[in-house]
Specification:
- This protein has about 500 residues and is an alpha+beta fold.
- About 45% of the residues lie in helices and about 10% in strands.
- A five-stranded antiparallel β-sheet has the order 1-2-3-5-4. Strands 6-11-12 form a three-stranded antiparallel β-sheet, covered by helices on one side. The protein has a three-stranded antiparallel β-sheet with strand order 7-9-8.
- Helix 4 packs parallel to helix 8 and helix 6 packs antiparallel against helix 7.
- This is Phosphotransferase enzyme.
- It comes from Aspergillus pseudoviridinutans.
Length: about 500
């Protein structure tokens, strides 16, 4: 048990290091003064916001009365230059070309050698109030109206299509890099805006760890097959060079999970890809922009009218095929809330979303109505960084599910290109039973407001969360039928 606790402490130290961002506050405040246009202006208050996964954020109150939000990406946010440069270009494109309500960027730098010593974005404070503080107090009619606005904004986002799958940049920023990355120009370069281009993806899952210094294919791509094969080959290349054997007690208590196990699953995935992706000219291949993380706190509204005034968190957003986009906003995820009335409201909101989507964006609605959509898209979504997430089970499970639906996926009459041995399927079944048992408890901890999935808690709630964790961990151990199983249950519990 000591080894597991040491490993957990090591991981926590790694996470803290990945979120540590050194910068020069006086220089950042000087940059904010320049934004005001008044040389005699001063910053009279600095408020540190609750830290997100990928950014430091400060609210700077200036003597002129302005409030400026300063955001600095953490080291774990992905490639520093590309992450900042792409977000800035994407936001200008969406705000000035499509009229999406996004806070205006006052100043920015993607060069850490600047006076601040870090990449940064200075932007206006989001107008309105975060929807998370209002949502559950609103009547159903107001909630439905906000969902309607969300669909309308999504439709506006989808009104421009792109020939390539990748992130948006200013063309000049990509041309300034050495070596210069692959990119494709965005068509219809009008409206008096800078020239935009589609370049490499910036999400950390394509750059994590040693991937950051490897020559991997991060786009852009012309088709889903090109993308899906690229991420599989990227992971194989990374695994061959950097993955190391490790114990996965949910899989086996005797044999380690090896890079060869991972590569074997990836090779089978690559053989499936041509059958998972939709045909080249179908609507699912259409490339548009969508917001991948529309949860309640990323949406701001006027509390008097419930009109959406701002949408934030556009970091890592890309132009991607509809087939690979999130099926519906995170804010409409169904919870496990046992209260019948609460469940009825959640289901009604989700039903209304799809009703509205059917009339506003029938192509996307038709794709999401395909019962095989999740079966075909899930394996592709799980590949990037799968080993790092310690989630080979989910990828293998998605591939097994695709094989189980083979006749429906292939149209029949085509021999399955891959198989799993009886031993592999038996080990997978045993792993599933353990994972489902733990997952049920973890979801209950989240629903009860005790510990969120993933184990992240605020510092002030740490001690309470630790006590609840110890209690439920012991309850899970007590479910074991013998001493060997008790030891196994202790090993597979994810929080320490």
């Amino acid at each position: 048990m000591e080894n597991f606790e040491r490993r957990a402490r090591s991981r926590e130290a790694e996470k803290l290091t990945a979120r540590y961002r050194k910068f020069k506050l006086p220089a950042l405040l000087d940059a904010a003064v320049n934004v005001t246009g008044h040389n005699d202006a001063q910053c009279i208050k600095v408020l540190k916001c609750v830290e997100g996964q990928y950014n430091k954020a400060l609210i700077l109150t200036m003597s002129t009365g302005q409030e400026i939000v300063a955001r600095l990406p953490n080291p774990n946010a992905g490639p520093a230059f590309y992450t900042t440069a792409s977000e800035v270009a994407t936001r200008q494109f969406l705000r000035d070309r499509l009229g999406i309500p996004i806070p205006r960027i006052h100043a920015w730098s993607a060069d850490e050698s600047n006076a601040v010593g870090a990449e940064y974005i200075l932007e206006e404070k989001a107008i309105g109030q975060a929807l998370g503080s209002l949502w559950h107090k609103l009547p159903l009619s107001s909630q439905l109206d906000i969902v309607k606005q969300i669909v309308d904004i999504e439709k506006k986002l989808a009104s421009i299509t792109f020939p390539w799958h990748g992130c948006i940049y200013y063309q000049s920023d990509l041309e300034s890099r050495q070596p210069m990355p692959s990119f494709a120009l965005v068509p219809d370069q009008s409206h008096g805006l800078p020239k935009f281009a589609i370049g490499p993806l910036t999400h950390p899952k394509y750059w994590q760890g040693k991937r950051a210094v490897m020559e991997l294919n991060r786009g852009p791509w012309e088709s889903i097959v090109d993308y899906a094969l690229a991420v599989g080959k990227n992971e194989i290349q990374w695994a061959e060079e950097h993955a190391r054997p490790r114990m996965n007690f949910q899989w086996s208590t005797e044999e380690p999970e090896t890079p060869s196990d991972y590569i074997s699953v990836l090779q089978r995935y690559n053989k499936l890809v041509p059958y998972l992706a939709p045909p080249p000219l179908c609507n699912e291949q259409i490339i548009t922009i969508s917001h991948p993380d529309l949860h309640l706190d990323n949406i701001f509204v006027d509390p008097q009218t419930n009109h959406i005034t701002s949408i934030i968190d556009w970091q890592h957003v890309s132009a991607s095929p509809i087939f690979l986009q999130r099926p519906f906003p995170q804010m409409l995820e169904l919870s496990q809330n046992p209260q019948a009335e609460h469940q009825i409201i959640e289901k009604r909101l989700l039903e209304f979303y799809f009703e509205r989507l059917g009339s506003m964006d029938p192509f996307r609605w038709k794709m999401l109505s395909d019962p095989l959509h999740a079966v075909k898209s899930e394996p592709i979504s799980l590949v990037p960084c799968c080993w790092d997430r310690e989630d080979l089970f989910s990828l293998r499970n998605a591939i097994i599910s695709a094989v189980a639906h083979w006749d429906d996926i292939s149209g029949g009459g085509i021999e399955r290109p891959i198989e799993f041995t009886d031993k592999e399927l038996e080990l997978h079944k045993n792993e599933m039973e353990l994972i489902e048992g733990v997952s049920m408890i973890l979801h209950q901890l989240q629903e009860d407001g005790l510990i969120s999935l993933g184990g992240m808690v605020s510092p002030e709630r740490y001690e309470d969360a630790r006590k609840w964790n110890n209690y439920f961990k012991q309850e899970f151990i007590n479910l074991a039928e013998d001493e060997e199983q008790r030891e196994l249950h202790a090993k597979v519990w994810p929080y320490h």
